[in-house]
């Protein structure tokens, strides 16, 4: 990087930190003294019961809070009664009920057009994760940057917030977009894998909108991102073959084909992907470690389906200011990974399961399924002693 642009990035980070501190003081007037970011305990680890649970929050579409009205809800629970605060309440209920080890915010976290101040809107949207000290990772959708911050500023800001494990981009790589990073989940303390990532999470920026040959379309994952992804996966798998999960906002074109398969969940609207197919599926398949991909973008789709041995799952619409369907509750996805009990301590990942929770009275759990299970025949034996 030329010295001028690195100077500018440092300046940008400083300005954003000041902004963050100022905003947190505004939101919490009691906190008069500036403070630095509260960091999540790193590296993230499996719990002592051998589980690691991820809550996927797709498409919050947060605006200005109490003033931002809900869309597509029944009249008797809508109107002035319903706002972004219902989105916040849903997130709090989920955290209390599920106690996730990580929350993955998969884009369109804020709805730029309804957010007067992007930073304030993001702080409010993510606040339940910070209140409950839950580590979280975020990526961008196509609406986040439609307010007062660019995609680079948004990702920088997200990376500086309390308990965030988000990163702008991987150090040492020139990668397209903002929000391409890897998070490793290590073995429990006291186990043989205390220094080893047993589950790898890849976060990718699928962009916003593009014009291709004069035609408007959605963004897609670029060649430089796929190159970084395969290089990272190759390096991680040099010693151990830990399974991996990937997260990005805009579905790849092949997700359309799932209509003709035995998917689980609801397929209620067309897959709004890019016209461009950059070969992401081929890359993901050839990497060999990715078992599940988690998407947002299409709020009325919440299914999982198999493409070449990888499960592609939508999170389902979460936010009340996002379009939805009246009478079809807002929802979130839980991804539950469990280690295998080894002879001496916990071994590698044994299973990856998922289900969804609805924002109804009982927080109903639906569509529970196993996405992947360790197979003794074809796995890395060093992980399963
Ligand atoms: C939104 O929250 C208010 C206040 O808690 C509640 O009365 C209303 O039913 C909620 N609306 C929806 C659609 O959940
Ligand atoms: C893990 O790393 C720490 C610090 O480098 C080291 O002291 C310890 O022996 C390692 N433990 C295992 C099981 O590899």
TrEMBL record:
Record InterPro entries: Calcineurin-like_PHP (IPR004843), Metallo-depent_PP-like (IPR029052), PAP14/16/28/29 (IPR011230)
Keywords on record: Glycoprotein, Iron, Metal-binding, Secreted, Signal, Zinc
Keyword Transmembrane helix: no
Ranges of residues in domain Calcineurin-like phosphoesterase: 52-299
Signal peptide residues on this chain, from the entry's feature table: 1-26
Cofactor: Zn(2+)
Keyword Zinc: yes
Subcellular location: Secreted
A GO MF term: hydrolase activity, acting on ester bonds
Highest taxon, organism lineage: Eukaryota
GO cellular component assignments: cytoplasm; extracellular region
Protein family per UniProt: Belongs to the metallophosphoesterase superfamily. Purple acid phosphatase family.
Assembly mode: Homodimer.
Protein name: Calcineurin-like phosphoesterase domain-containing protein
Native species: Lolium multiflorum
Organism lineage: Eukaryota, Viridiplantae, Streptophyta, Embryophyta, Tracheophyta
């Amino acid at each position: 990087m030329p010295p001028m642009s690195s100077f500018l990035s440092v300046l940008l980070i400083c300005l954003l930190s000041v902004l963050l501190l100022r905003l947190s003081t505004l939101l919490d007037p009691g906190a008069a003294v500036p403070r630095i970011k509260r960091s999540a305990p790193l590296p993230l680890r499996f719990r002592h019961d051998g589980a690691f649970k991820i809550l996927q929050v797709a498409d919050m579409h947060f605006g200005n809070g109490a003033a931002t009205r809900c869309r597509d809800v029944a009249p008797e629970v809508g109107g002035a009664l319903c706002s972004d605060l219902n989105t916040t309440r849903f997130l709090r209920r989920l955290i209390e009920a599920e106690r996730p080890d990580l929350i993955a915010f998969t884009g369109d976290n804020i709805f730029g057009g309804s957010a007067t101040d992007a930073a304030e809107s993001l702080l409010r949207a993510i606040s339940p994760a910070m209140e409950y000290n839950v580590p979280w990772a975020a990526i961008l959708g196509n609406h986040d940057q439609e307010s007062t911050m660019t995609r680079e500023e948004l990702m920088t800001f997200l990376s500086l917030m309390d308990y965030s494990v988000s990163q702008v981009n991987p150090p040492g790589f020139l990668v397209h977009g903002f929000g391409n990073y890897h998070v490793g989940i290590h073995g429990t303390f006291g186990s043989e894998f205390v220094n080893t990532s047993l589950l790898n999470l890849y976060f990718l920026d699928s962009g916003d909108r593009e014009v291709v040959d004069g035609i408007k379309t959605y963004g897609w994952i670029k060649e430089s991102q796929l190159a970084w992804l395969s290089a990272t996966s190759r390096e991680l798998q040099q010693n151990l073959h830990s399974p991996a999960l990937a997260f990005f906002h805009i579905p790849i074109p092949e997700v359309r084909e799932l209509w003709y398969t035995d998917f689980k969940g609801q397929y209620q609207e067309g897959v709004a992907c890019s016209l461009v197919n950059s070969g992401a599926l081929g890359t993901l398949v050839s990497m060999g470690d990715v078992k599940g991909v988690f998407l947002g973008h299409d709020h009325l789709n919440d299914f999982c389906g198999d493409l070449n041995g990888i499960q592609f799952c939508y999170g389902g619409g979460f936010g009340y200011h996002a379009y939805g369907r009246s009478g079809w509750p807002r929802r979130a996805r839980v991804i539950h990974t469990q280690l295998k009990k080894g002879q001496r301590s916990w071994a590698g990942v044994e299973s990856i399961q998922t289900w969804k929770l609805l924002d109804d009275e009982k927080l109903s759990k639906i569509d529970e399924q196993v996405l992947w299970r360790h197979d003794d025949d074809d796995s890395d034996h060093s992980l399963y002693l």
